[in-house]
Design brief:
Elements: H1 5-8, E1 29-31, E2 40-42, H2 45-55, E3 60-68, E4 79-86, E5 91-97, H3 105-120, E6 125-130
Parallel strand pairs: 5-6
Antiparallel strand pairs: 1-2, 3-4, 4-5
Length: about 130
């Protein structure tokens, strides 16, 4: 079988990416969630596990994953991990981050951009989901 270099190249699994650029290509996990209108695509283990957890949460009625930050001054190619509607109609936004990368300047900057973006849209329930440390 004749393979090209691209087919032989291993895809690296980028742990803890947040507000990822929608044009980034990385390992993707996909699954159906009952509260998500589309197929759920996760780009790391934290996001995958939290998506399953949200799906079983009785307070969450709708889940949107990898939502583009439309009108974001830093660019519209960025996404947030979870945009959820709770049973009382309140919006909840969550970003999934690898604990080891939490204090890195770029991670902190991107989390700040996300938080400010969603605050400007009236979302007050914004939070970070961390993996369990080693």
């Amino acid at each position: 079988m004749n393979r090209t270099k691209k087919q032989n190249k291993k895809i690296s699994f980028k742990k803890g990416e947040i507000m990822r650029n929608s044009k980034t290509h990385s390992k993707t996990l996909k699954r159906r969630l009952s509260k998500c209108q589309t197929v759920f695509y996760a780009y790391n283990d934290i996001q995958y596990a939290y998506g399953i957890r949200l799906d079983s949460n009785p307070d969450v009625v709708d889940i949107k994953c990898n939502v583009k930050l439309v009108g974001c001054p830093e660019g519209e190619n960025y996404t947030t991990d979870f945009y959820c509607t709770k049973i009382d109609g309140e919006i909840m936004v969550r970003e999934c981050v690898d604990k080891e990368k939490l204090l890195k300047p770029l991670t902190a900057k991107m989390l700040d951009i996300s938080r400010n973006y969603w605050l400007s849209k009236g979302v007050v329930d914004w939070g970070i989901v961390l993996n369990e440390g080693k």
